[in-house]
Amino acid sequence: MSQVKLLNFTKKTSKDLHFIRRPELLFFPFDRMISRLSYKADLFNYSLQSEPIAQFTKISSPVLSWEECCLQRAEQLLRLNKEKYYLAFSGGIDSTTMLVSILRTWPKADLKRIVIYLSHHSVEENPGFFDRYLAEFPLVNSLIDVSQELFANGSLMVTGELGDQLFGADILGTACQLFGDQALAADYREMAPQVLDTLTKCPGAGAKIFAHLHPMVEECPFPIRTMHDFFWWFNFSQKWQHVKFRFCHLPTWDTRARYGDCIMAFFDTPDFQRWSLANHDLKIKRTWDSYKFTAKEFIYDFTKDPAQLHLKKIQSLEKTYVLSEMRIAVTEDYGTVERPEDLEKYERFVN
Amino acid sequence: MNASLIKNFIYTDRKTGRVVLVKRSREFDFQLSSGDFYTDLVMSAAAIPFADGYGQKFSPECGMIRLDEELSDSEHSRLDLLKRKIEVQLLIHTSLLMIEKDIEAAFSEDVLQRAPISAANFKIYWQLMRDERRILLGRVNDFRRRLSEQIEKLDSIAAVNREYQRMILNLNLGVYSPTNRERKGIGVQQDHQI
Questions:
Q1: What is the ipTM of this complex?
Q2: Mutation site, A322, A336, A342, interface B, largest B CB count within 10 A
Q3: Residue B27: pLDDT band by 50, 70, 90 thresholds?
Q4: B chain contacts of residue A328, beta-carbon cutoff 8 Å
Q5: Chain-chain contact of B135 with A325 (C-beta, under 8 angstroms)
């Protein structure tokens, strides 16, 4: 086994990794799980650079409200005292939450440090917010790589990543499209394998993936019963690190621009994670449209714009990738894996 | 241009003058070239007949002309490789054309003018959109140029196939298109109301 471990697996697809001994896991996103539990479902050996979930159960201080988490995070970012903050705005619920938090807490003079990093999709998704709050800031198109500038100038990019992991998972949106909103409250043991079959487009794969994932439910602090419970727990416990470190998946990203120094996810705090563990009832109601309702209400309270209560959950990232080849993987020392066959030495299931 | 006409793109080996492949389209431009081959474009009401096997040459005056002279094994193999290179370029080129079409549609004046942005900020929005369109189209053009160079230097069909597989498996070729408003459900309702 290699001494150095992986930080993240970022290749677009794992289907051509013929050496993998557990081919049933070669489906996105199950090929890039990095467990924060005792039970490890990971395909590769990773260096865990995110909090083990067990550590949150040992903290006795009160759990903050959503609003308190947001406002404290915004203040904490300001205390880093960076000269320039690139705020990545996708137009979605998570990045709008981030911006509302900052607009509510930062003094006017400090708002001058802000650059909005966005694309035309961001505006299309949330034109009202762009028009009313963002158009006055310096704007940089998110198709432009700024990693070298972040590194050279000591600027910080803040993204809306990890919001999904706090609330649920995109897979639930697919499940609702397939089976209706009742899928959210359905017994996960019956429905999850069906949904996984559909996602993988491979009959029978769902049952295998489900069997591989299932032991993770034992470590949830409350009983997992529904599809929402199950896929939120999967996203929260297995995908956190992948999402946290996927900022460097494009080969154009300068790997000297590292997490914590040059880039951070707004929702990457212990307080947000404790909120997620303690407030399962505040993530979604009975319909997919209600997903992230707590965050939407937080935005509405600031904007008083009813449209903010009906923001759609839309994946935000793919345009940036058009005609880009993805990095295969990044190691814990921010080295890059250049060839798919070089991944073999990081494989976990060697027997 | 008459939309009912078929565009026949005829790819000919420069060295032997033999037609390697014909691609037909009513919409897109598949004009390619390299040091090894060139393309003739013929517009016609019916598809120009083409027989596989490198037994034809094309003349603008006479059309396809059958050749009786056999090719040597080595020449045949060289044309097999050339044909595969053109096929792969056409496959990727098709994705690029669709991406370009998608970009043009998303940044059309009609779409941009309907954006619910106030008059005070519209100029800022318009500039952002213009820059993004330029960046995206530049990215497509750069990619197209590199693709041709990359494929041209490969020396076996196996190498071409490997490169194609690599691109399919780790390159974002527009399966998720850059500006797919329909997939995201953006503007769909408004369009239906109009």
A1: 0.86
A2: A322
A3: confident
A4: 170
A5: no
